[in-house]
User: Fold these one by one.
Assistant:
Number 1:
Amino acid sequence: MSSSNGGPSLPQERKIVTEIPGPRSRELQERRKAAVAPGVGSTLPVYTVAAGGGVIVDVDGNSLIDFGSGIAVTNVGNAHPEVVRRVSEQVAAFTHTCFMVTPYEAYVAVCERLNALTPGDHEKRTILVNSGAEAVENAVKIARYATRRPAVVVFDHGYHGRTLLTMTLTSKNMPYKEGFGPYAPEVYRMPMAYPFRSELDGPATAAEAIDRITTQIGVHNVAAVVVEPILGEGGFIEPSPGFLPAIDAFAKENGIVFVADEIQTGFGRTGRMFASEHEGVVPDLITTAKGVAGGLPLAAVTGRAELMDAVHGGGLGGTYGGNPLACEAALAVFDVLESEDLPGRARRIGEVMLPRLRAMAGRLPQIGDVRGRGAMTAVELVVPGTKTPDPGAAAAVARACHERGLLVLTAGTYGNVLRFLPPLVIPEHLLLEGLDLLEEAFQ
Ligand SMILES: *Cc1c(COP(=O)(O)O)cnc(C)c1O
């Protein structure tokens, strides 16, 4: 462990030795402008050389506190020794055969673990793919095949990816959809129970959605409803209590496949292994990615055997899906989640962060709402005394955090949410220092 360049053996401290970004990062940014298409953005263009525990170290020698986890990916921490060990052994043995050509045990083992880990004790099957968007695409393919129905229902503020189908499922136009149409057909968007911005409670909003599904689409035409149990890019919106169970019950009564998109919420992030568990929802299909493999590209669809088994042989797959390096990383992640009780760590992070954020909201009229569960928390910024979104304030506070060496991300349909996604292994002193820096950034 001590011979590695990153991982938890990195000094767990914030250290700022240049302005942010520093001179070497700025040089790389210039090179990038000549080589990389500008459609791909970066939140904070400091160029990384090492990361682990709760820090990211850049080319100028700055050590930043990480409240982003590469967008909820490095739940177990960057370069976790167990991930490094298993991936290193695998990379020396073989790097790829294609599971569709000659298979290997790790793929099967990952599917077994996901079947056991996801909510519900019914019989399940899993397929592995490369990205979250690809998992959502496959969930829709499976639901359509199994039901022989065309329509897909999604919700306001939802985010499901950037491919043609998944950007169609995504709610927000700019930047995800602008100019990229026409979109895929048979996608219908319903209202979401967004407690801060709607008067209706969860069951009432669900009743409204159910009425529209029934009258505007016809239940017999609906293959799937796809929903995030806590909406990620949409601004860490927790649907009001009762909304998800009501939609789930409606789906089950009408032969509609309930797909929980747990790509951002999964693997301990919210204090439970999966966020669906908070309200006892058992999804028919569940999509996972991000936190599953400690940063290696892997994603999955897991679900009821009778749905997953419906599709004909050869109908699902892909060249790299379930790459052996990514599978070994995932097996390490599953072990670490349990051995280090990372859902428990996530709950502890929430217990530290939420009271501090609420106290800040009491003093700072720009904070209109504080929300989240476990290590997935956020503040929504508004024009003081109103609910008018203030994306400018969110951008300014994020910038002030970055200058101080605290990496935070923004989110939200209105771009006015600061979201906090620390690695679940972040040491508590960095969590507290990060909160102090955040408060300073507001001043
Ligand atoms: C990130 C995300 C996706 C897309 O995952 P990619 O790996 O970026 O394709 C889909 N759904 C949710 C909820 C996400 O957070």
Note: The CA atoms of residues 149 and 221 lie 5 Å apart.
Number 2:
Amino acid sequence: MRLPVYLDYNATTPVDSRVLEAMLPWFSEHFGNAASRTHLYGWTAEEAVATARKQVAKLLKTNLKEVVFTSGATEANNLAIKGVFEKYSYKGKHIVTVATEHKAVLDTCHHCEQLGGEVTYLRPDTNGLITPQQVAEALRSDTILVSVMYANNEIGVIQPIREIAAATHAGGALFHTDATQAAGKLPIDMAEEGIDLLSLSAHKFYGPKGVGALAVRQGVELTAQLDGGGHERGRRSGTLNVPGIVGLGKACELAQKEMNAEAERLCRLRDRLEQEILANVPHTFVNGKASQRLAHLTNICFEHIDGENLLLSLKDIAVSTGSACTSASVLPSYVLKILGLTDDQAYASLRFSLGRFTTEEEIECTIQHVIETVERMRVGSAV
Ligand SMILES: *Cc1c(COP(=O)(O)O)cnc(C)c1O
């Protein structure tokens, strides 16, 4: 059986063979605990972690003291939001975020509400964008944190982060961004963009699953969410996942070198895929077609088609409707609903996300497959 063409890189990516190679010695040959300060085994592991920390810091153009390793972006978002909420609750309990954030941000904000916090959920325009003015207007004297994702996982829209961070700071609050879909894909400069806290995850850019980081600007304090041995300068206790961290570091190094060429190549393929589908399949439109969006992704609505049937019929390609995290339930994507789509339109929207190993041939096959499948389904239902 031939495997379907993988076009779900926003859900997860395969580990790059160069990343895997860098990780392998750290499982059994160099197995030391990075917190063991009394012997060579520990020092060797600690050194590997230090190298990875430099690689992450370099990708984000930040100081290496500011990188806290976590189990992924979900944990990084929890640490950022709950950590600031607890630490700065003496100043205020108000948080500003956006209704189209990932669940790892939204549910963490709900948790803060249960603890007496107040959260403002900004509504983006029909392309998924929010404005710095919206943020400025939402700020109050008791606002401690603004959290706005860098690039959206479902539609790829890129928020005006620099301007939003400036508006946040003008109001005296801290700025956090969930950059899980932007890290390793877009050039990021934490200091210049005014980002206080940034979450990322290795498995979204060719590193392993179960490892990520929260970058924290120097001077920003956090209440730890895990109590224990005081690892990561007291910010995240727990024995470090050395192979995973080495893999994350290597993924950062590769991304930094290759992201520009990769984005250019994927943008060409994405544009071809999108244009061919729009030109050859009637009743289609792109969700979130803002001028600023990720180069490797398109989210297309196929109107007057049963979404579930569409996904089942497209058996030669692996794509998603909504985000993987909400697809356990059969609810339509809340992100697409907020952009103004009906339930039917949201169900009939597909996210195609390309990546490092996507080939031109795969895109050609996908175009043909989508055109033929939708035609067949539309004839069947006479629309
Ligand atoms: C994947 C993703 C997450 C969750 O990351 P994990 O490392 O899998 O926990 C959070 N936010 C965004 C935007 C994502 O795409």
Note: The first helix runs from residue 17 to 23.
Number 3:
Amino acid sequence: MIEYENLGKLNNPFFEEYQNSFSQTLQSGWYVLGNNVKNFESEFAEYTKSKFCIGVASGLDALVLALRAFSFKPGSEVIVPSNTYIATILSIVQCGLVPVLVEPDILTYNIDPNKIEEKISKKTVAIMPVHLYGKSCKMDLIVEIAKQYGLKIIEDAAQSHGALFKGKMTGTFGEFGAFSFYPTKNLGALGDAGALTTGDSDLAKTILRLRNYGSDVKYYNEIVGFNSRLDEIQAGFLSIKLKSLDDINKHKRKLAGIYLANIPSDYILPVVDEDYFDVYHIFNIRHEQRDELRSFLLDNGIKTEIHYPVSPNKQKAMQGIIFGEYPISEEIHATTLSLPVSYFHTEDDVMKVCECLERFLKK
Ligand SMILES: *Cc1c(COP(=O)(O)O)cnc(C)c1O
């Protein structure tokens, strides 16, 4: 059986270091906002080449706090890709703002910059590009549009730790980069965790307050804040894994390379382009008979996933919130299939998947 993911196996290389880190934190008696968080924040800022990094409780919280930092007027509009993971849209809704969906480019699965301008209105305040599956959006074009219309950019970098566009880190093009360290992400903790990166010291200060009850000094509250802190135990684990993030990405890129070289052209493969350094949080292919293909692979001992089965505009929770037709998004959701591409998978595993994909065509 080739599993799609196995978090135990994925974390096995870090077992001893994690145990030591856990013991140290336990013995320190300091569990919330201490040295582990400070250290991880400066390490992740350095890794992403951002001036500031602020740890928060999750990727969704990172997006919510980033939006809150601007105190946008309720009812303001935020542009977001129509095929994103639901969290990006939820963050907008939770801030009393209106999500305005823009269809993705069918080749990159990322927001189509050519379709942004037609969705900008007088109420538009921000763009939230999502670097889906570990591939950057076309950030040069998006930055240009944002400048022209005076819009903020909050990048959803929850799937793109270490991914580059024209040599620059995702999460550093806009006002904020929002990261998730959910266990399955390329940089994953052993529980929920997230962070924001920014180059603006005032915004960084606001996030420091927002994540901690709106306070700088204990029991003195400057603004209406949240409790959204990264805890010491997770920060300790993240510092350890961050040292291997390049290695994790390198491994995933190697597996992706094998897929790209060996999967028959009857399947639609991710695009490869020199502007992008992709980190393959997800390696997806597309096929008209996706569901039959998925069962065939499973019958042959290969587990896959679908990211994602339902287009946000078709989600029950989004009725009355999202309006309009999103045929490109729905096409992707109906045909996409995610193949095994974890840190613990071997080249042999991936070759077996390729062979099985070939056999499906001859059925
Ligand atoms: C995982 C993810 C999030 C949310 O992160 P959590 O840590 O689970 O809250 C947001 N956006 C995208 C694109 C994601 O993949």
Note: Residues 26 and 242 are 21 Å apart (CA to CA).
